[in-house]
């Protein structure tokens, strides 16, 4: 089976699990988020081994804050599920758009010293995908016009989260944060973009923009 096929199948499986847990909400979603946060922290500590205690504290906050943000988004009000799915859609579409546009037409490197595989075309492909799919979901569900403008901005944030994790891996001298997910590496490899998007979405909700 090709690498793309493995990546696609495992990606679909992860999306299905995430959607099922999100739809269920309550304790099921809370436990799932908690387990994911634990996995993120575990992988963080492996990457940052020997970097000093401040990195362990930072990693704890890095895992905890987005986990709390996701729980806040889901349970805050009646539209919580729709907003949570918007958060997922923006993150996933950014990743998928960047991957396929980058592979198809990407030539100029975005940040070769940090992540040689990322391209400028891929970056804009991710932003465009976030804007289109995130915007479409916001309109379809009546979440508010503000999310039309936030979707591409959060698409940029998702890629910033990806680049930060790539920098950590380069400093640690590893290709992936783990090997739990076939075709994707570790949990942190897959959720590095969701971390900033979850936090920013919760902040937008608290600020009354959603």
UniProtKB/TrEMBL annotation:
Pathway: Phospholipid metabolism; CDP-diacylglycerol biosynthesis; CDP-diacylglycerol from sn-glycerol 3-phosphate: step 3/3; Lipid metabolism
The protein's enzyme class: transferase
Gene Ontology cellular-component annotations: plasma membrane
Gene Ontology terms: biological process: CDP-diacylglycerol biosynthetic process
Keyword terms of this UniProt record: Cell membrane, Lipid biosynthesis, Lipid metabolism, Membrane, Nucleotidyltransferase, Phospholipid biosynthesis, Phospholipid metabolism, Transferase, Transmembrane, Transmembrane helix
Gene Ontology MF term list: phosphatidate cytidylyltransferase activity
Main location: membrane
Highest taxon, organism lineage: Bacteria
EC number: 2.7.7.41
Record membrane topology: Multi-pass membrane protein
Pfam families: CTP_transf_1 (PF01148)
Family that this chain belongs to: Belongs to the CDS family.
PANTHER family, A to Z: PHOSPHATIDATE CYTIDYLYLTRANSFERASE
Protein name stated in the entry: Phosphatidate cytidylyltransferase
Organism, as annotated: Sphingomonas lutea
């Amino acid at each position: 089976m090709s690498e793309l096929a493995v990546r696609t199948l495992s990606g679909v499986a992860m999306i299905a699990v995430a959607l099922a847990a999100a739809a269920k909400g309550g304790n099921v979603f809370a436990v799932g988020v908690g387990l994911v946060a634990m996995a993120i922290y575990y992988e963080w500590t492996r990457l940052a081994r020997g970097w000093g205690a401040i990195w362990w504290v930072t990693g704890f906050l890095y895992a905890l804050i987005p986990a709390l943000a996701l729980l806040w988004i889901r349970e805050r009000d009646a539209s919580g599920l729709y907003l949570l799915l918007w958060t997922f859609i923006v993150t996933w579409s950014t990743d998928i758009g960047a991957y396929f546009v980058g592979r198809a037409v990407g030539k100029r490197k975005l940040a070769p010293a940090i992540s040689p595989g990322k391209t400028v075309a891929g970056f804009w492909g991710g932003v465009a995908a976030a804007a289109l799919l995130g915007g479409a979901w916001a309109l379809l569900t009546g979440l508010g016009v503000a999310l039309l403008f936030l979707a591409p901005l959060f698409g940029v944030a998702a890629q910033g989260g990806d680049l930060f994790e790539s920098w950590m891996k380069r400093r640690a001298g590893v290709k992936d944060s783990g090997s739990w997910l076939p075709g994707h590496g570790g949990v942190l490899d897959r959720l590095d973009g969701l971390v900033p998007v979850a936090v920013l979405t919760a902040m937008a909700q608290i600020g009354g923009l959603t």
